[in-house]
């Protein structure tokens, strides 16, 4: 495992001042690089920790921000008011993702030929949109993503390996929806895979917290959230190992 350095990165996007999280291994590169998109609640300690873990494994990782430094824990209505219009605007999503990607690619010692993406929820949709534009990600992993329409034509010029995962009990991204999207990837000739985690709900990695941000006991959320969200600690670890395996395989 590598020693790492973490840095907040401030930049302007979508009319807001974003506060991304950049982390990198110590030592000379070039290092493979990962762009991370957070879910609709906002860039939180979980996605920052995923970036840090990737850096320990030898990647430069940038966890983008698309809420201007805000998080919406316990405020589902405010989260939906910010996120749903964004998900309806492909141009906005692609512009937000591209600005973050440019910051990552401008980081010293990044190997642009070994580029990856990871997205959760709405951030999964953003990295999928970037992939459709032709960004040469070697592999893209999306966890309970917001999905674009399942149209094979949108993926005909893409060469990335795509990994999709969701919980069997997720009402927002159902296994049937993922399979329909997978069929579009299949028709486009892509290398793709789906993992469905039995018993897991939406955002199954999100550990419950108290109103002060401290961890809460159990798996049920204490603060208000959208329906169908639940924590599943075993599948959280399994999904993370699957992401690391995917990126490791594609880095060779």
UniProtKB/TrEMBL annotation:
Leader peptide range in chain numbering: none
GO terms assigned for molecular function: hydrolase activity
Keywords: Hydrolase
InterPro entries registered for this protein in UniProt: AB_hydrolase_fold, Dienelactn_hydro, FrsA_esterase
Sequence intervals crossing the membrane: none
All copies of domain Dienelactone hydrolase, residue ranges: 20-250
Protein name per Swiss-Prot or TrEMBL: Dienelactone hydrolase family protein
């Amino acid at each position: 495992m590598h020693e790492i350095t973490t840095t907040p990165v401030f930049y302007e996007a979508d009319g807001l001042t974003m506060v991304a999280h950049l982390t990198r291994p110590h030592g000379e590169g070039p290092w493979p690089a990962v762009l991370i998109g957070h879910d609709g609640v906002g860039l939180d300690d979980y996605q920052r920790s995923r970036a840090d873990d990737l850096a320990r494994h030898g990647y430069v990782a940038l966890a983008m921000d698309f809420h201007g430094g805000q998080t919406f824990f316990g405020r589902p209505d405010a989260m939906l008011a910010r996120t749903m219009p964004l998900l309806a605007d492909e141009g906005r999503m692609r512009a937000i993702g591209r600005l973050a990607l440019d910051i990552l690619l401008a980081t010293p010692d990044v190997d642009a030929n070994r580029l990856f993406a990871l997205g959760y929820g709405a951030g999964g949709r953003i990295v999928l949109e970037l992939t459709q534009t032709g960004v040469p990600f070697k592999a893209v992993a999306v966890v309970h993503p917001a999905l674009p329409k399942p149209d094979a034509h949108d993926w005909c010029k893409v060469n990335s390996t795509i990994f999709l995962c969701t919980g069997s009990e997720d009402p927002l991204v159902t296994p049937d929806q993922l399979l329909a999207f997978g069929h579009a990837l299949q028709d486009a000739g892509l290398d793709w895979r789906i993992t469905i985690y039995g018993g897991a709900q939406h955002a199954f990695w999100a550990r419950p917290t108290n109103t002060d941000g401290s961890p809460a006991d159990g798996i049920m959320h204490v603060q208000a959230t959208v329906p169908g969200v639940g924590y599943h600690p075993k599948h959280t670890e399994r999904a993370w190992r699957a992401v690391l395996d995917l990126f490791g395989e594609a880095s060779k």
